[in-house]
Amino acid sequence: MIPAAARTHPALAYLRARRGRPATFSDRYTGVFGLLVAAAVLGRPVAEALAGLAHHADPARLGPGLALVAAAYAGFLALARALGPVVLPAADASWLVTSPLPRRAVLGRTALLLLSAAVLAGAALGLTALSVFGAPDQLGVRLAAALVLGVAAGVGGMATAVLGQQSPASDARLQFLIAGALSVAVLAAVLGAGPGRRILAAVAEAPASLGVAAAGVASVVAAFLVRQAWTALARIPAHRILASSTRTARVTSAATTLDPGMLTWVAEDAHWRGRALRSRPWPRLLSRLGPAPALAWQEWLRVGRRPGRLAALLGAAALPAVCANAIGGGSGAAGMLLCGALTAAAMCTGGVRRDGGDPALARMLAVDGRAATAARAVLPALLAASWSALALVGLQAAGTLPAGAWWALGPAAAPALAAGALRMARRRPVDHSMPVIDTPGGAVPTGPLIWALTGVDLALFGSLPALSALASRPASVAPYVAAQAVAGAAVLAAYILRPSRGNRP
C-alpha cells in the first residue's frame, strides 16, 4: 500500500492527473468485450489442454522435462537480474528518482508491472511442470497446487531480483538461486538418464495433499519475500535504477526499431562498463606470426576474461539431448544443434562487428583483410567444433543417434559455422525500406527477413552433409564426415578469398 503522505503529494498528484485521460464507458465496454471474445476463442483449446493433463507421467521424459523447467526458471531469474528489474521510463528515471519524492510512490507502478509479469511467468512454469509430472488423480487439486507453486516461484524469484538490485549481498543470493536452479536442471537430467528415474517417478506419484502442503509453504515464503522487496524499494540506490532504466531503454529501442544487433552492444557495454582490467603480456609467438593473429588475439582475451559465460556455453551442449528425450524423439535435434553451434561461433566475433561499424578504423590498422579474416575464424571454429562435438556425444549417449563416430561431424562442420558467424557479424542494420511480400500467411517484410537469414544461409549451406546425416541416421557416418569436412573447408575458403572493397579486415 502507498502511504497517505505519498498519495497526497502535490507533485505526484499532478503527474497522475496528466499521465492519461480517464477511462470512459466506451473504453470499459471495449475491454470487457475483448475479454469475452478471448474467453470464447481460447476457452475450448484451454479446456482440452487442461483435460490432457490427466495422465500418468512417462518415466523416460520426467528427467528431461524437469530439467527444461528448471533451466527456464533459471533463465527467468537471469533475465530479471539483467534488466534491473526495477526500471522506469527515461524521463521518470532522470527526474523523479533523483528528486525528494517518496521512492516507493514513484516506483509503485513499476512494482505492479513486475508483479503481473511474475504471476504470468510463474503460472506458465507451473502448468509446464504439471504437464511433465502429469495428474493421475484429483486433477483439480493438482492443477491448483501447480499454479500456486508456479506463481509463488515466479513472484518469489522476482522479489529476490528486486532485493538483489538493492545491495551486492542480496545480489549474491540471487546468483546463488540461479546456480541452484541450474544445478536442479543438471541433477534432473542425470537422474532421468539412469536408475534415478524411480525417484522422479515416486515424486510424480506423490499424493495431491503433499503438493497442496508444498504450495502453502511456497506461498508463505513468496509473501515474505514480496514484503521485503516492497520495503526495499525505498532503499534501492538511484544510480542502479538509472543504469537499469538506460539499459532497458536501449533494449526497447532495439525491439521497436527491429534492430536486434543493438542488443549485443547493450550486453557488452553493460558487462564491461566500470570494470578494471589488468594488463597481461601477449604471447611472443604473436609477434612472429604477423599483425593478423595479433588483431585476432583480442577475441581470445575477451573469451578468457569471461570464464563463466564459456562454462555456461559448454554446459548448454546437453540441451539437444535433453530436448530430444523430453519431446520423445530427435526430429528437432539437427536444428537445435545448428543453432547452438552457430551461437557458440558468433560469441567471439565482437572485433568483426566493431570493424563493420567503424570501417575507417579498420583501414587505419593496415592489416590485410583476408589474413585478418582467416585469423579471426580460428576461435569461432574452435568453439563451434567443441560445442557441436559435445552435443553430438550427448545425443549419442541419450540413444538418439546410433553407434559410430558422430562427434566428428562437429569439427568437420566448424569451418562452415565460423564462416556463417563472421558473415552474421558483418551484416548491416535492418533495412526497413525494402518491400513487403504478400503471402497466404500474411505480409512478410523482406528487410528483417534478409537480416535474419544473413550468415545463417552460409552456415546452413556449408553444413548440409551433417544435417543430412542427422536426418537419415545412416549405419556408417564416415562418408558424411568426409563430405562435411570438404564442404566446410570449401565454404570457409570461399568466404575468406571473396573479393571485398578495399580488402579491409
UniProtKB/TrEMBL annotation:
Pfam families: DUF6297 (PF19814)
Coiled coil: none
Protein keywords: Membrane, Transmembrane, Transmembrane helix
Classification via InterPro entries: DUF6297 (IPR046264)
Transmembrane intervals: 29-47, 67-91, 112-133, 139-164, 176-194, 206-226, 310-327, 333-352, 373-398, 404-425, 449-471, 477-497
Name of this protein: Uncharacterized protein
Source species taxonomy: Bacteria, Bacillati, Actinomycetota, Actinomycetes, Streptosporangiales
